[in-house]
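COMPLEX REQUEST
Ligand: glycyl-adenosine-5'-phosphate
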Amino acid sequence: MEKIVSLCKRRGFIFQSSEIYGGLNGFWDYGPLGAELKRNIKESWWRSMSQLRDDVVGLEASIIMHPRIWEASGHTSTFSDLMVDCLLTKKRFRADQIEPQSGTAYFYAGATSHSGDKECADPFSVLIPFGKPPESARRVALEFYHQRGLGNPAQLLGERAERIEKTTRYNPENGSLLTDPRPFNLMLKTYVGPVESADNVSYLRPETAQAIFAQFKNVLEVSRQRTPFGICQIGKAFRNEINPRNFTFRSREFEQMELEFFIRPDEAVEAICGSVARPAGPGHPGEPQPNWGWQLWHQYWVEERLRYYENIGLPRASLVEYWQKPEELAHYARATVDLLYKFPFSKRDEQGELTGEELEGIAARSDFDLSQHQRFSGKAMTVFDEELKAAWPRLDEPKRAELSQRYFEARSRYLGKVGEPAETAEKLARKDVELLGKGYYVPHVIEPSAGVDRLALALICNAYCEDQAPDEKGKMETRVVMRFHPRIAPIKVAVFPLLKNKPDLVKKAKAVRDLLRPHMSVFYDEAGAIGRRYRRQDEAGTPFGVTIDFDTLGEKGPALQDTVTLRDRDSMKQDRVKIGDLEPILLEKIR
Ligand code: GAP
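STATUS: Structure written out below.
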């Protein structure tokens, strides 16, 4: 990973934010190559999620929204991580990131100052590895009581030792006791307007998804879509992460690419189609069908997203499909699949295999989100479904009763979980059933939610490669090459005149650059030996290099005139191609 981080800085993919002031933990800037890479990621995502589909439209919402949105979504009350502080250094950790440790814990009931005139009765303890002398624990404890005003040396009171296995109660860096875990809300707070009062508190959004739910009705109206359909958005999100780490993997400012795909509740599908199709097995279920319920839509989006990653160069073997266990699921989620990438810093399993870290989550979120905004805003989030209205009266009575009962149970369950009193929940759920019979329901949602920065990091890790290539004199040397897929590579093609002091070569090379520029990102380079220029582009991950030489000028006769060499970064093979053919050849490879 160190080599990758250093290349990112050296070649201008990623810089530390505010570096000249010592940096700001959890914030990153993208340099020229990183900015192009991120743009390509976002464009490829948008293209696959919206541009190439009839059933997904886009949204670009504000980052700061009405604070009630975060009450409805649950972020104000529950969007928190448990954190612990080191009692000695005050360093903060996420409780779930403390690795279990075993050792001897030394407990102290308090301490008195050397002269005996001051006393501190705060209990404290220190964990040290088995076999280490107790002095090392005492040193840490003395520092703790010193900080409480006892001076050093002090007299430790009531020392007691105990063997402890697999505890997460101690700072792994110094053995000091940690505070009890406390929830810490991850939303970044700000004030809207000139007055810093509780009434003006607002938040930088911690996810882009909620804006999609809040604008659901507006988008539905103007786009003339019907369920199933989706709304997608790319944008910044902010989380005051307790422990940003692993380079850009866990940042405090990052970008998300989220789709909310709205579907009929299964009861509506069954009323219209007679039954709900179930997954026939693993893999892509094929073209969407009207009889799909949430399970098949969920499976469809998991497979679509895997295809997307493969399409931009992440091999299937580098990805892990992790199905969250029932106890890990949010209370409203029916299923969530995390797509993990095997980052070099991922943990290893017992077989030594990288286990992977989350790139994207694909959640079947039921009708929770829109229902919450309906409750909190008082605005109906239901859609009218003509086909359901027509189908409902045609159902026989037992079927109607069965579907009504199932829908009633699902709606009462949701209303109960969000705290409606039993009587109100029952009344509201009965009303929902009545509405269903008239063709109205709150859509369910499947949410594929990905991070741009995590994907950029995965693509960088995946691309990094060292191989052997001949230098100027034909001697083999180590070459660092970023094997980005041409679709995602920051620069698509580099154009080189063989020599920079030959005006005819330079003029022709600039003409080739100008020919290609409107269609793709081109880098023109005339500085240094051609071999070194190739190496620079290999490190930048540029998949193709075009060299203009004397043959291009017609020095070996008309057959080679206006042809160039086209070099492939990975095989280093060079083909002679006509200038006129360059654009279609390259476009085919980068699209
Ligand atoms: N709307 C659902 C949602 O936000 P999430 O799993 O919290 O779900 C979705 O976030 C994606 O956003 C993650 O899979 C990850 O790619 C990205 N992400 C989340 N927190 C991040 C962070 N602190 N730094 C970088 N990316 C992050």
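REMARKS: The chain has 17 helices and 29 strands. The longest helix spans residues 397-417.
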